[in-house]
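Work package 3, deliverable 3.1, input record:
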Amino acid sequence: MAVYKRTYAAYEGSLTPTWSRFLILPRYSFARLWQSRFLVMFFMACFFYPLGCIGYIYLANNLSVLSSFGIPAPLGNVLKVQPSLFLYFCWVQAAFTYLLTAFIGPSLVSPDLVNGAMPLYFCRPFSRTEYIAGKMSVLVFLLSMVTWVPGLILFTIQASLAGWEWTKANLWIAGSLFIGLMVWILMLSLLALALSAWVKWKIAAGGLLLGVFFAGAGFGTALNSVMRTTYGSLLNLTEVMFTIWSKLFRWPSDTGISVEASWICVGVVCAICLWLLIRRVRAFEVVK
Amino acid sequence: MMGRWLSQIGLVIRLEMRKTFFSRRGIWVYLLALAPVLIFLGHSLSEINNRKERQALNAAHPVSTAALRSIERGSTIEEVVEKVGEPFAKNGFRRRDFIVDIYEYTDGENVFGFGFRNNRLENINERDRDTIAKDSLVFAGVFQFFFLRLAIFFGCVGVFTNLFRGEMLDKSLHFYLLTPIRREILTIGKYLAGLIATVVIFCTSTFLQLAALSLHFTGSEISEYLTGPGWGHVASYLGVTAAACLGYGSIFLIAGLLFKNPIIPAATVLVWEGMNNFLPAALKKVSVIFYLQSLSPVVAPPDANMPPLQKLLLTAAEPVAPVWAVLGLLTLTVVVVAIAARKARKLEINYSTD
């Protein structure tokens, strides 16, 4: 065909349904992420603790195995599956997800902004909400795979071993696992995306995520000791989450902050991150 | 030759200064440095306010410190009121088998709380106003656990990793590499620029923190403290701040040269430095914070809210003499900067991979 005849023609192929368009972004993101061997290895390492928990649950429900190894009964009696097991599961897995987010999060939005790719996204039938949902789904999916999904598997294993009575009495643990870890994942994902959108350097965004948690915790502790208050702990996001988890798992919390204040703090952090994201993710950018 | 090298170092420092001090990217370093100043300022202002309040209450309910201290446990409410008059605040509650009354007095400086159970004085709670000795302990805690370990640490991560890695990301390092100066000179110049910037920013912050903390003390209290150990403490804190910038700066300079993503070594160093209190004595010495703590004039008490299990794991090590601590940090810096200079000599950049 002659070049001059190559004029514009509308696309006539099948369209991706509107509801699932945001899934295009994770498809490409995952393809890029799994190329990193470090990420694959770290992702595998995230499952060591859940595997250890499975072993613990098995032993706690099969004390006869212990006695066959010559371990006396009193030690066997110490092994009990309590809500604290799931609380510590949340705690440990949250630490892994934090590192995972620090590794993945910064590379999600900043390259699109640095390379001026936003107009290319938004000149298509693709909204800002879909963009944010798409980018966030990368983190939500990965973090879910190492948090509440194995958590619920642990619960199921315990339920199958302990019987219906235990399951009926402790069904709330499954709900607490899901809600507690989903809140953590949402906050972490929004924080990572907001930092990635505002700090164009991937390295700096990763460092800032590290700083928000560590320097925030340190500043909060300093504020508490100088001003003789406990409100400084609200700057320590890990303590805030631990307070929420403690309440969800009906475990006494000694963080010194109330559950209501913790929920408000999480809400404020998420709202600020969302606002920052919406301000940054635009089809145009004014370059000064 | 030496003169030329020195002038070249001076030129590199001058170029880098503008980037480090006045760039928008560096604003967060200032915020990090000023954050503890705000805390101490807030503390001082609240103490000034509290003292004014106590003095007003004392004027309305005058009572002397000696009279308040002379009250003994077992006295009745009537006896106490007869001796020191009416309190400025009365609280209490009633249960089935006992009544609790709390009477609060102030001598204008301290607050005394007297707790009565069934009309018998059981508890005397004296809340003294802050003294320099008390505040210097609080300052030592904030300085060692927040300022050194987090504020200066992250400040140095930002400034020193930016020296080489930042230029690679900005695709501007080749301008330096194309100039007719030795790479060692470039490395030393950049390191000194980062060091000057961090020392100026963080030493100013340390000084402002001390100034903010002393705001609520009277002139006589401050001059008494300064004629005693005061000036020595101020000099030591400024010296430790500079030493922290020296030590951490060299580590993050080389991290920016060796690692594509310097956050991974930064996180590793952060964890290592953070767990220093729990390490055995021999391993403690393989860290910067150990030498900085050895140089600090006041030993910070451990966190009162630390879980008992963590308290059990705390280990103590004899601090090294200040001379050895300074020598240790200087040696570390010289060795690390020398390795960085050697690495810079063979530095090749390929922006497409960065």
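Chain B has a mean pLDDT of 88.
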